[in-house]
Each structure stands twice: as C-alpha cells, then as structure tokens.
Amino acid sequence: MTRNTSLPSVSSFSAIPTALLPLFDALDDLAQAGLLRRLGPALARFMASLGVLNPAPLLACTILSELEGRGHSCLMLQELADNPSALLGWKNEQWSALAELAQPLPNDLASWRHCLSNCQQIWLVTDVGNNQQQPLVLDQDRLYLRRYWKDETNVADAIGARADSRRTVDIAQAQHWLNKLFDSSSAATEHAAEPDWQKIACAIALRSQLSIITGGPGTGKTYTVARLLALLFASATTPENLRIALAAPTGKAAARLKQAIDAALEELSDKVGSALPLAQLSSSMGAARTLHSLLGARPNTRFFSHHSGNQLDVDVLIVDEASMVHLEMMAAILAALPATTMLILLGDKDQLASVEAGAVLGDLCRNAEAGAYGAQTLDYLSLSCGIAVPQRYLGDGGALSQQTVMLRQSRRFSGPIGQLALAVNSGNNAAASAILRANLHTNDGPVLNWMTQAQTKEMLQLALNGRSGAEGGYCGYLSLLNEQPKNHVAGTNLVAEHEKWALNVLQRFESFRILCAVREGAWGVAGLNSAIEQALDSQKLIKRHSEWYIGRPVMITRNDHGTGVYNGDIGICLPDPLRKDAQRVYFLEGPTVRSVLATRLRDVVTAYAMTVHKSQGSEFSHTVLVLPEVSSPVLSRELVYTGITRARSNFTLVTPSASVFDDALKRRTLRASGLASLLDRF
Questions:
Q1: pTM for the complete prediction?
Q2: What are residue 449's phi and psi, to 5 degrees?
Q3: How buried is 431 (Cβ within 10 angstroms: 0-12 exposed, 13-18 middle, 19+ buried)?
Q4: pLDDT score of 492
Q5: CA-to-CA distance for 363 and 682, rounded, in angstroms?
Q6: DSSP letters for 96-151
Q7: What is the mean pLDDT of the chain?
C-alpha cells in the first residue's frame, strides 16, 4: 500500500527505537486506508519523541485521538480491554494485526490501568503532586487529552454549583403570575395523566441560576420560555433594566429563537394587559446571536473575548438548541457567565449530539424522563403553581434533577410525523415501518412517503418537483427568479422591492429540503448536490456558467466575522439590484434579509442537499431524508429521529436499500464521556 507522505515522518522527531518503526508504519497504513485520522499516528510519534517507548500507551493515545474525532471526550479503558475491534468499528483481523506489532499489550482492565498510570506523559489525577501538565490524563478508568479532561471537569463543577444555588422567590407573586400566564384550559386539564410541565418549567427556572428545559418538537419549548421571560420581567424590581441575552449555536437557530419568542410575547401581551408592557420589554432584549458572536470569537484561534477574566454583562442567558453545544463551547459559556447570571438551556435530548466532542445536553438530561424530584421541589411546586407531581416522577435525583424539566406533550406532532418520530426514538422498527407504509395508500395525498429501493431518476424528480400530496421541489423557488423587480418601474424603491423579492425566494426555498445521512457517495451530500445541479441546468432552470450563478443555494462552512456570516448559514445567490453583473448572496434574518457580495464569501458549498447535522435548528414544510445504499456506523436512531423532526407538514424517506433504515434504528449513538459520572457528585 502506498503510504501517505503528508504524515509527519519519524525523522522529524527525536530518535525513536527501530523496534517501534513497524508499529508506526502500520498506523500510517491504517490512516491511509481511512480507518484512522492522520492526527492519531502523529500524536503517537509526538508521544514517542517525549520518551514514551512502551507501545501500549502509544496505541492508546492513537485510539483516543481517533475517538475524539468521532465525538467522544475520552477513551473508556473497559471498552478497550473488552473489545477494541468493536470500539473502533474494525474487523477483528485488522485489530489483531496491529496488536501483534504492539506486544506486549495489556489484556484486561487492571493491566491497562496499571500500564497507563505508569507512563510519564500521562497524569493520574489521584497523584496530585505529579501534575506537570502532561498531555494525557487518566481519571479513574477514562483516558483523556488534557484539554477535554479540563473542559469536562470545569463544566461539571460549574453546573453543579449552579444547580445547588437557590434564588429567593416571592411565592405569592410567583403564584399570581403563573396562574395568569397559564390558564386552566391548558394541557394539565386536557391531559389529566400529566401535570402542566410548561408551568412547572417556569416555576423551577425562577428559583435557580440554572434550569434545563428539554422536549421533542411541538412540546412548546419557546412557548414556555416566552412565559418564563414574562415571569422574570414581572418579578424584577426594574424590568426595563433586566439584561437578557438570547443565543443559539447557529445563525438560523438564533433567528428562529428570537422570531418565535417575539411572536409568543406579542400574543401574550393581550393576556397580561398593561400591567406588564411585554412589547416594550421584548424590544429591549435585542437580537438573538450565535454563541460565537455572543462570546466574541477571535479569528484564527480557539479563544473568545469573554472568559472568566472578562465575563458577559447579562442577567439572563437563554441558549436554544443546546443539543448542538459541544463540550468545549459549554465550558466557554460557563466560564464567561457571572455566578449571578441565570442560565436557561433549551433543547431536545434525543436529537443528534454536537458534531464536535461531547454530548453535554444528553449527559445533563440523563434523568429527565424519570423526573426524580425530591420533597423540597414538590413543596415548592405545590406552593408556587398549585401542582402536585404524580408519584411516578418522585425520587432523589440530586440537585441537577431538581432543575431539569422534560416537556412531554407534543401539540404539533400528534399526527403521522409525530407517531413516526416516537416509534423511531424508541427503536421500534416494526412500528416505524408500519407507520410509513400506512401512509402510502391514502387518497388525499400522504403526509409520509417511503421511496424504498429508490433510483437516482426518482430522487431527482422528487428534488425538482416534490411528490403527490406534498409541496416542495426546487422548481418552486427557481420559478420566482423570473419575477425579479425591474429598475425601470417608475416610483418604486428598487432596493426595497428587490429585498422583498429576495425574501420571497428564500422563504420558498426554505419550505423544502433534502437531508443526507452521509457526505460522500451518490446518495450523500456531494453526489446529490452535483446530480441536482446538473438536472436543473439541463432543464434550463439555472444557468450554471460559473461557480456563482443566479439561484445557487449555498451554506457557509466557516465563521467569517468580517462579513457577518457563520457556519451553517444558508443563502441564495441573486443579482445585485444596483450593480450590473454583480451578485449578492441573500440570507434570511427573521422577517427580513441581509446580503453579502458573492465575491466576499470564501468558505461556501452548494446546498440543495445538506447533512442532517447541519439541519438542526431548522424546520421545513417538506423534509426529505436520504439514507445511503450501505449501512455504516454514522447511521443511528438519533440521526433518523432528527431528520424526521425537521419536517413540519410532510416527510419523505428515501432508501435505496430498505434494510439500511432497520439497521439505523438498531444503532444508538453512545458517546464516551465522564461528565455524567462527575455530575453524580451533585
């Protein structure tokens, strides 16, 4: 096999014993074959250059680097000892060949622990006096890269301290406003088996520096947080001075958060009347921002302007789509928050975890379904909102459980899409398949559709025109390109008319989206984007004469503070209304648009199709989820669930091979992390 010469060569480090060269060669071969990240073998060489000559720690740090790239924050030694092939997703013979070159390797958990704890470049946390900033850390049976151990420890400590804190609550005032904000005809009455969890969430949040509100689509997370904001305004001595920040991981999620809260507060203002000027208070909050923008991301570094030494000047921070927040970002948020700031995390614990390492919301919400509320919490809820929590939710889940509320009643997903999402989330293959198939034969146009054994031709037809009974297809937004305002119409404000037209184009494009499980291949993002683009060009719906063409949808792939665009933003290339032959890319910003010259955008990709990961925080009237021909470790129950729950009105599943859908539902995304264990202290 030809070895990748871009890997650091052994000669670039200090002398390494000849006996280790076959091991490094084998690691290079595995990287070349795509079974390891190139960073793993490079890290092993670096460790060897520091004097680590035992092959076992070198192999362990290579595996750790590989797992970090897959979203794990640490390497569980028990999994390494039990079944390293399964841990890495390799064939047994691939691991055996590598292990043969690394002999002698430990053969059980105790041996691995002993071996690694005696490596001079691995700090054993119980050996406090030997902390010399070694690159690796061994904490119990978990091996970390030091920065991930530090982030995980800092997050656990900060979350624990906040969960333990209690704010003084005026019970009579809280009761008055909670009863005013949540009327008796709410879910508590309609669904007697469950209390009003939205009301409970507001009461819980009022008493602490931390609250976590989780729930699936349609359970009313933003509805709840709008009422929580009204409650906070009502409880504040000077509500007009209450400093509230709204944030989300992506620009689109941030815009949707602000838009949803503004709409909910406007509706609520009629309910509360002049006693609480919600419209005025809402405008004082300002726009929602990305987390990078909020913290002041510094170009070309991992650092932020706001940190423990320069904290944010806010009283309340609300973070939406918290499932997308990775470990390092959560550590940065918590470090930048004063101890007196109230932090509210919103998200769906069952969605895909963050792209980068960690599954923070999942770890924080591990007891959310059980509730596990203690006696003091029950007394407080009884006094503040008159709710008796059912016995099945009682327990002693620790301080964090007392500040976590799971919203359980979906008001939007009660139909086929909701039923399908529930079946997928529970891993019920038979029920999920039956729900999909049941909708194939309705006469009034199915909400759901399953294109099994799909061919490329069928897929392209769906992409261009949608399907029977479901709006969508990209022909819709492209047809609006012919309605561009003309500059010769007398008495018109050309720029305003142009932006109104651009808004219409963007909104039509946002009604339909193709989501892929993988990036590469004919059924991945790259293959489908290319095929759709060619099909549109052949039908003269676009004129693809260069990279930038009118109607091209693009996704930003890297934050660019100079142009104000952020990773995940979606825009469409349209003519510049004032400059002939110039093009601008227009982005939705709530009910308006903003634009950037196309020539100023560097990191973009065409976005007829996008990954499920990138779709988090978005909703589309008609969502198409495309699975690849062959099953792979990236296909999971969480991925399928997330794809389904992006659909608002219609959902189509495309599977060249039906068995891939079944395989995905059997596979759960379980990320190695010590955060849950660390949080058990609180």
A1: 0.83
A2: -150, 145
A3: middle
A4: 58
A5: 13
A6: HHHHHHTPSPP-SHHHHHHHHHT-TTEEETT-GGG-S--SEEEETTEEEEHHHHHH
A7: 85
